[in-house]
């Protein structure tokens, strides 16, 4: 064998000459982000006065290439006209059917069963999940429609807090205390007690359950009016934080039934301000405790949208916001922030708009769910499956891990 033949390197049969030829460089293809199609229906339940997006937010979304359709009259109760939305670039729909053709539906009240009938598969629904008013039929309808439903109150931000709950809680805390002051007046059926103190007359006594944002703003309002405040929470860190935020010593206690009952016996106002991270709020005030409260005392259960923390709480509406049980006035309106509809609408809109803009740049809300744990935390139905364990246990419906579903769908 010659030296030249020895120097030849044999090519294995499994490789071809073409495979040794330099290939054209392939760059990653960037898919053009999809533009969102957002629908804002008019709210028809629970005397809801808020609207999910205000005209200034609509203008921002339209300027970024997204399409927004607003049902006629959706902003009226928040003092926004159809003309305001039209000038911001929104399409005005003159029927709910038109609004529900959008790929993303945003509401500030849960949709009714009739509204769910108007929805279509793979549609995104962003709305509150008010536990006392939903049932198994509600969940099953969303599943049958294969809707991706997100609960506003369970959406988290980067700091692991609930931004919509926080901003609504700020308003609810102030509104709760002002409402209590109103209900204590003789003209509202109360005992004619002034919430604030005056010279020579003892101040009204307020008991607040919970030490979160609702409690903080309710405490500020109560102290500003001159009332005495008692705060109960099992989280000592929250009690310390609240005391530091208010900037003065406060009466605080862990939720010990003995101490709590003693304070409720002399309370003029009791505020339920507890929030559950998922599922129902715990009932910390028994019916027996309420029976021992002063006649004419007022209960404001801000936690009613998650079931309430008083054993006697029942959902009420703005048509008939109160009821009397055991001589105690109960106020249990779940959308208490709706009393200040314009302020509340701007607040919700300010939180949702950046999420929608980020979803638009990512490609879609569904793609954003894959990378955003905080947004994913709000999902409770996903393309025919229930993904919230608490709802599954409550309504005896099988729940599935959302992470597995998203991984298999993307």
From TrEMBL:
Keyword RNA-binding: no
Limits of the Alanine dehydrogenase/pyridine nucleotide transhydrogenase N-terminal domain: 39-172
GO biological process: L-alanine catabolic process
Domain of life: Bacteria
Record Pfam families: AlaDh_PNT_C, AlaDh_PNT_N
Record EC number: 1.4.1.1
Gene3D superfamilies referenced in this protein's UniProt entry, alphabetically: NAD(P)-binding Rossmann-like Domain
PANTHER family per UniProt: ALANINE DEHYDROGENASE
Name this protein carries in UniProt: alanine dehydrogenase
Originating species: Phaeodactylibacter luteus
């Amino acid at each position: 064998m010659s030296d030249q033949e020895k120097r030849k390197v044999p090519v294995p049969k499994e490789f071809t000459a073409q495979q040794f030829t330099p290939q054209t460089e392939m760059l990653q293809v960037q898919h053009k982000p999809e533009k969102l199609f957002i629908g804002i229906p008019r709210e028809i339940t629970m005397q809801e006065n808020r609207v999910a997006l205000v005209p200034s937010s609509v203008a921002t979304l339209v300027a970024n290439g997204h399409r927004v359709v607003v049902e006629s009259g959706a902003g009226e109760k928040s003092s926004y006209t159809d003309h305001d939305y039209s000038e911001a670039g929104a399409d005005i729909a003159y029927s709910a059917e038109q609004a529900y053709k959008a790929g993303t539906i945003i509401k500030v009240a849960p949709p009714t069963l009739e509204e769910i009938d108007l929805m279509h598969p793979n549609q995104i629904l962003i709305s509150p999940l008010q536990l006392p008013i939903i049932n198994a039929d509600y969940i099953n309808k969303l599943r049958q429609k294969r809707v991706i439903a997100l609960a506003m109150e369970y959406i988290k931000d980067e700091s692991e807090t609930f931004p919509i709950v926080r901003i609504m809680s700020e308003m609810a805390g102030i509104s709760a205390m002002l409402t209590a002051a109103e209900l204590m007046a003789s003209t509202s059926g109360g005992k004619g007690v002034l919430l604030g103190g005056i010279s020579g007359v003892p101040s009204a006594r307020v008991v607040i359950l919970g030490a979160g944002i609702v409690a903080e703003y309710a405490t500020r309002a109560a102290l500003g009016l001159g009332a005495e405040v008692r705060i109960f929470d099992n989280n000592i860190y929250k009690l310390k934080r609240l005391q530091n935020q208010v900037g003065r010593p406060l009466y605080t206690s862990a939720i010990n039934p003995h101490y709590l009952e003693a304070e409720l016996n002399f309370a003029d106002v009791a505020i339920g301000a507890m929030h559950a991270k998922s599922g129902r709020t715990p009932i910390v005030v028994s019916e027996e405790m309420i029976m021992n409260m002063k006649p004419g005392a007022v209960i404001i259960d801000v936690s009613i949208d998650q079931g309430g923390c008083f054993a006697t709480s029942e959902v009420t509406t703005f048509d008939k916001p109160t009821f009397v049980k055991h001589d105690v006035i109960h106020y249990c309106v779940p959308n208490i922030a709706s009393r200040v509809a314009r302020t509340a609408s701007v607040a919700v809109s300010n939180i949702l708009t950046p999420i929608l803009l980020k979803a638009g740049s990512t490609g879609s809300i569904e793609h954003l769910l894959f990378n955003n744990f905080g947004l994913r935390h709000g999902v409770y139905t996903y393309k025919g499956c229930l993904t919230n364990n608490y709802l599954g246990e409550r309504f005896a419906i099988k729940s599935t891990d959302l992470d597995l579903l998203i991984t298999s769908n993307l």
